[in-house]
Amino acid sequence: MSSANGPGPSVLAKSLGYAGLIPFVGLALAQWTLAPAHRTFIGLALLGYGATIASFLGAIHWGLVMRDASRASFRFLVWGVVPSLVAWIALLTGPVPGLLVIAGLLWACFAVDRWIYARFQVPGWLSMRLSLTLVASASCVVGEMGVLR
Question: Which H, E and C letters describe the chain, residue by residue?
Fold first, then answer.
């Protein structure tokens, strides 16, 4: 798919991207609807899923460099591992404050991607990324609040 912003996600990519929100939203809602005895487990499940997605977002940068090695940069490759490292630290902290760290990390990934996607001529993906980041990070915050209640 192409737009004024360059190539964007295909219907399949959009479908998979938005389907990837199901665990975020489902687990955040579960925090508020299931028995209190399950809150820690649900919080850990949401934290683990968020960490996995953050790692995926970092790995995209390695893929971009692999696609166009002429744009290879130490910065892109280093940034590609930062989300995984921060997500790992968030996992070690538990759902509180780990879910807030993941929510912030998702926004940090989006901020970096706004700059890098333009450089790799794929800014058409940013609209979907914004929607996904908004829902995923909000789910992390709602889930963290559910652990605390």
Answer: CEECCEECCCHHHHHHHHHCHHHHHHHHHHHHHCCHHHHHHHHHHHHHHHHHHHHHHHHHHHHHHHHCHHHCCHHHHHHHHHHHHHHHHHHHHCHHHHHHHHHHHHHHHHHHHHHHHHHCCCHHHHHHHHHHHHHHHHHHHHHHHHHHC
